[in-house]
Amino acid sequence: MQTIKFNKLDLKEDDLLLDMGCGEGRHTIGAYIEKPVNSFGFDLSYEDLKVAKGRLNDFDISNKKEICQFGVGDINTLPFKDESYDSVICSEVLEHVDSPKDSIKELIRVLKPGGVLALSVPRFLPELICWGLSKEYQEMPGGHVRIFRHSQLRKLATVEGLRYLSFHWAHGLHSPYWWLQCLFWKNKDKSFLVKKYHQFLVWDLMKKPILTRILEFILQPLIGKSVVMYFRKPS
Q1: pLDDT tens string 165-210
Q2: What is the pTM of this model?
Q3: Cβ(74)–Cβ(3) under 8 Å?
Q4: What CA–CA distance (Å, rounded) separates 227 from 230?
Q5: Taking 90 as the threshold, does the pLDDT of residue 141 lie above it?
Q6: What does DSSP assign to residue 33?
Q7: Mean pLDDT over residues 118-134, rounded?
Q8: Is residue 122 within a helix (H) or strand (E), and if so which, with residue range?
Q9: Is 210 exposed, middle or buried (0-12, 13-18, 19+ CB in 10 A)?
Q10: Which residues contact 17 (CB under 8 A, 6 or more apart)?
Q11: Closest CA to 120 of 158, 150, 140
Q12: Confidence of residue 138 (pLDDT cuts 50, 70, 90)
């Protein structure tokens, strides 16, 4: 499941791509498989990184000359020199950190001039509904500590000198799943509705039927779970 659209990153052959807060590697691996780039995923969770490395083994990469690697790293103290990466992804991370401003500054520091930074966070209204349905959702360890308005996320990047390029919503079908989880939070692992909706999302992801593609297109502007923005660092 991809939130970021790789075609918007202006990736070229042998580019270096950083996926900061990569989790289990969906964007790191996705970009590596789809594009001729060297893809690097970093995260604080060593357990998630082990999953990511295992998932990479599910693909035939014998003909790939580029590399895909993972490592442990803190978004506020990245172990890279200035202007190291041609493009940077930070997907569903800033809602967790103590200071989004400091985190974005660090992402900009390691991005090359002319490079594209892609940011995604939970969208304001769907996230607000989650908070309203479940206090436990807000308080779970490593959970979301803030909700971004569209203008707030855009300003965080542009005030640091980045040029705003475009935005889109993502995962319109996923918001109801999270609302169901929040509604049945204490018993979500046993909830019939939660399990059935999860099965529906997996079926949609694997089969991509035309009906759900149409539903996704209609629902994204209304209740898309995430908002994604793209910015360019001035040359």
Answers
A1: 999 999 999 999 999 999 999 999 999 999 999 999 999 999 999 9
A2: 0.95
A3: no
A4: 10
A5: no
A6: H
A7: 97
A8: strand 111-122
A9: exposed
A10: 9, 11, 28, 31, 35, 37, 38, 39, 40, 85, 86, 87, 88, 89
A11: 150
A12: confident
Q: Which helix (H) or strand (E) holds 30?
A: helix 26-34
Q: For position 183, what pLDDT does the model report?
A: 96
Structure tokens at 57: 């083994």
For residue 214, give the amino acid letter.
I
What one-character-per-residue DSSP string does 135-166 give? Answer: HHHHHSTT-------HHHHHHHHHTTTPEEEE
Q: How far apart are CA 180 and CA 175, in angstroms?
A: 9
Helix (H, G, I), strand (E, B) or coil at 167: strand
d(CA 11, CA 136): 40
d(CA 6, CA 9): 5
Token couple for 15: 């580019």
